[in-house]
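Section: Multi-chain targets

For targets with more than one molecule, the full set of components is provided together so that the structure can be written out for the assembly as a whole rather than chain by chain. Components appear in the order listed by the source. The example entry contains two components.
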Amino acid sequence: MERLDPDKLSVEFRTGVTSEEPVIGRKYTLTHSDETGELYLTIGLDYAVDQISWMRDEVLAEWVPHEETPFLQVYVYVDGANDSFVSEIRDKIFRRELPLALEAIRYGDRYFFEVHPKLDQAPIWIYFGSKDPDYNSFEYWGTPADYA
Amino acid sequence: MERLDPDKLSVEFRTGVTSEEPVIGRKYTLTHSDETGELYLTIGLDYAVDQISWMRDEVLAEWVPHEETPFLQVYVYVDGANDSFVSEIRDKIFRRELPLALEAIRYGDRYFFEVHPKLDQAPIWIYFGSKDPDYNSFEYWGTPADYA
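Its structure, encoded as tokens over all components, is:
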């Protein structure tokens, strides 16, 4: 697995979010540049729709309340161009890049995990969103600690 | 201007939003099918990122607090394919389709405007989001009453 280069990660905290709070409502928008390999993480109360490109190759994540401990729900948009071959390729690329994306979120928001150590053990659920049932899925991908 | 055909508009209210509440935090995601001309309006506390296609031709809107009366902030993503010609075309298409989109939001959420008649006079500000300064702009587009 490709490892995160912290020098290539930029993090932006938007209005209403600090490095510590809130948990519920905290949303991550992770985008990247194919050219430079730079990663851009925006942490806010909303997804950074201004950062989501026409490629829709961003990774979105948010903390969702669940019994005693919230879980981290991650969302990727698998479809493209109404074409199942494109969905197949995008599905493969997301699966290859998601470990790095999770590492970027875990590292980019590391002070938050220091303040909320329980959340390092929270489940990560990834929703691969597709109209094609072959690619539409909801999967357990470990915990943030696995990507620390 | 093309007029809204109410039979071609589907409206979905998501968790946390009713036809009356809330004002602040209420978000609209409007998408469409080029093939059928159907419009899909999702009203929720978040943008419906699952409804935003790789084309990024959706219209997003939300109520933003401002002094005595909130305003409706609308957002469209002008860029595509890192190409200023594509941005020029997309900008033109959005400008052509926005009156219909605003009519769809106003009609789709009509009970909300009945309960909050002041909001029919609220300003609508449209943010055309682009990295190209020629297309990046923030413009006043009247009030919801203009699209009723």
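The first strand of chain B starts at residue 9 and ends at 13.
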